[in-house]
């Protein structure tokens, strides 16, 4: 039997975890939104990988997210059939965060008694699980055919362990051993309520328990008519997309049929400061081709001075197997960039004229 290898979290994470474990933050279900968002990212990544590479583990498996609750054991398991992680990826993705972000978060916590405001300002990514769980166990198997499964485990203190594990299929299982006061989160009804509130627009099916029908609508909000969408739905989508806790200053919802067909839903964030613990580490818009994510951080759609804009662009005319190199040279991309940039600049000018206080926040 292999002995688990023990690692120590970097000092910044230890401080962060101590804050979260003892936090009285009231939005206690945010961890589920963040885990589902991470699972969706993993599914998008394998979906893109499969466009050009069939030599991956389980190339024909369905892409979905599943949530299983065990009331007696007080556990919650979030599973996906996404790209999975290798041993090194588990260590690097779950054991390290940007020191500047952690430092800023910790300093803000020390200066302000209201943890809710600070946690809401920064977001805490994967580590939010420790607001709800005494222990977390992650079992993941990479899409690489020569990789085995690995287990990452931590109780939210100063250390985590890594050891070989068992998982036949590609993907990731995250099991939370819930705190006693979080026991109601094993209720299927409660889970469905949370998913419909925060993750209804995830484009992969989310199954809860033994349900054969997905809980979420899987609606591409950006393809809907403006008249069909409420302010709350727009804000919920923004928060799901960015893991920001504050409402955006402005949204820009547009569609065009000529000279090419595309949909775009863009947001002006409440702050130009990035969410330090968001999984989105780079500037750039999410670029879809016919609802398939082809670039996670497309920097070719807006000039650098507008890199604070967040959102999605979805084109009917871009090829699915487009690479970054061909995208940059593609005339369609040049047309998209010109159209979107012009629209954003005009909207910012309108904001400066009619909502000067909001504009000055930028």
Architecture overview:
The chain has 362 residues and is an alpha+beta fold. It has 2 domains: 5-208, Histidine kinase-like ATPase, C-terminal domain (Heat Shock Protein 90, 2-Layer Sandwich); 221-360, Ribosomal Protein S5, domain 2 (2-Layer Sandwich). 34% of the residues lie in helices and 22% in strands. It has helices at 11-21, 30-52, 87-95, 99-111, 115-122, 188-198, 231-242, 324-329, 331-354, 356-360; strands spanning 5-8, 65-70, 75-80, 133-141, 149-154, 159-164, 171-178, 206-208, 250-256, 262-268, 285-289, 292-298, 310-315. The strands form 2 sheets. The chain has an 8-stranded mixed β-sheet with strand order 1-6-5-4-7-3-2-8. Helix 1 (11-21) packs across helix 4 (99-111). The N and C termini lie far apart (56 Å). The model has no long low-confidence stretch (mean pLDDT 84).
Describe, in short, the structure shown.
The chain has two domains: 204 residues, Heat Shock Protein 90 (2-Layer Sandwich), CATH 3.30.565.10; 140 residues, 2-Layer Sandwich (Ribosomal Protein S5, domain 2), CATH 3.30.230. The chain has ten helices and 13 strands.
Mean pLDDT, to the nearest integer, reads: 84
The run of helices and strands is EHHEEHHHEEEEHEHEEEEEHHH
CATH level 1 name of the largest domain: Alpha Beta
| Name of the CATH homologous superfamily of the largest domain | Histidine kinase-like ATPase, C-terminal domain
| Adjacency order of strands in the biggest sheet | 1-6-5-4-7-3-2-8
Strand percentage lies at: 15-25%
* Coarse morphology: globular
What's the total number of strands?
13
What distance lies between the first and last C-alpha atoms, to the nearest angstrom? 56 Å
Q: Which runs of at least 5 residues are low in confidence (pLDDT < 50)?
A: none
**How many individual helices?**
10
CATH topology of the largest domain: Heat Shock Protein 90
Q: What is the CATH-assigned architecture of the largest domain?
A: 2-Layer Sandwich
Structural category? alpha+beta
How much helix, percentage-wise, in residues? 25-40%
Number of domains: 2
Oligomerization state: single chain
**Main sheet record:** 8 strands, mixed
């Amino acid at each position: 039997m292999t002995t688990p290898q023990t690692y120590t979290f970097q000092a910044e994470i230890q401080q962060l975890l101590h804050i979260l474990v003892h936090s009285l933050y009231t939005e206690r279900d945010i961890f589920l939104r963040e885990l589902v968002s991470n699972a969706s990212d993993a599914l998008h990544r394998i979906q893109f990988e499969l466009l050009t590479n069939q030599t991956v583990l389980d190339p024909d498996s369905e892409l979905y997210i599943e949530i299983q609750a065990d009331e007696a054991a007080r556990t919650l398991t979030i599973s996906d059939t996404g790209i999975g992680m290798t041993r090194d990826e588990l260590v690097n993705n779950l054991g390290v965060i940007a020191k500047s972000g952690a430092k800023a978060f910790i300093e803000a916590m020390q200066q302000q008694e209201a943890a809710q405001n600070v946690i809401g300002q920064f977001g805490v990514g994967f580590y939010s699980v420790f607001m709800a769980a005494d222990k977390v166990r992650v079992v993941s198997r990479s899409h690489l055919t020569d990789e085995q499964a690995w287990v990452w485990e931590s109780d939210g203190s100063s250390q985590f362990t890594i050891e070989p594990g068992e998982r036949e299929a590609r993907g990731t299982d995250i099991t939370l051993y819930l705190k006693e006061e979080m026991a109601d989160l094993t209720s299927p009804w409660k889970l469905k309520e949370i998913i419909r509130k925060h993750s209804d627009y995830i484009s992969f099916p989310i199954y809860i328990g033994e349900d054969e029908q997905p809980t979420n609508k899987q609606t591409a909000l950006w393809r809907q008519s403006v008249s069909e969408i409420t302010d709350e739905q727009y804000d919920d989508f923004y928060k799901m997309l960015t893991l920001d806790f504050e409402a955006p200053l402005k949204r820009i919802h547009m569609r065009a049929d000529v000279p090419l067909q595309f949909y775009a839903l863009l947001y002006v964030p409440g702050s130009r400061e990035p969410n330090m613990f968001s999984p989105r580490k780079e500037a750039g818009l999410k670029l879809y081709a016919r609802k398939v994510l082809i670039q996670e951080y497309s920097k070719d759609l807006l000039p650098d001075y507008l890199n604070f804009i967040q959102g999605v662009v979805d084109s009917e005319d871009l090829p699915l197997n487009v690479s970054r190199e061909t995208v940059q040279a593609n005339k369609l991309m040049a047309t998209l960039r010109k159209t979107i940039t012009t629209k954003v600049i005009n909207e910012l000018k309108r904001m400066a004229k009619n909502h000067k206080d909001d504009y000055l926040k930028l």
